[in-house]
Amino acid sequence: MTQWHLYIIRCDDRYLYTGISTDVERRVAEHMAGKGKAAACTRPFSSIVLVYQVSVGDRSTAAKIEYRIKKLLKRDKEVIVSSRFERDELMRFVGLPAPDTGVLMDGQ
Predict the structure, then answer these.
(1) Which of 17, 48, 72, 74 is the most exposed place for a label (fewest CB within 10 A)?
(2) In terms of Cα–Cα distance, which of 45, 47, 52, 46 is closest to 66?
(3) C-beta pairs of 18-27 under 8 Å, 24+ apart in sequence
(4) Across the strands, what pairs with 17?
(5) CATH topology of domain 4-93
(6) What is residue 40's DSSP assignment?
(7) Which helix (H) or strand (E) holds 66?
(8) What is the pTM of this model?
(9) DSSP E strand boundaries for 1-108
């Protein structure tokens, strides 16, 4: 099974972009190059820094977590970056059942 990763990059020290990839190093390099497969929303920025990454398992799980994070407020994304959550902690934080519990957290 191919291992998928969720990553967050900081653009120009202010904007946080969340993505998923099987090769985070390559993907961040594409964002930094600002062309080709770089996300359109990261192209205008001159500074792009990887601030968080975590292995999350299969593509389906990665996409679910990415979707939830993209809906969060910036302050909640900053919590993820500063807390360096492991996969299960991250899943609980965004309101998904972690594989080890199968239970949704209240208020998420």
Answers:
(1) 74
(2) 52
(3) 18/66, 18/69, 18/70, 18/77, 19/66, 20/56, 20/59, 20/62, 20/63, 20/65, 20/66, 24/50, 24/53
(4) 9
(5) GIY-YIG endonuclease (3.40.1440)
(6) G
(7) helix 59-70
(8) 0.86
(9) 4-11, 15-21, 48-57
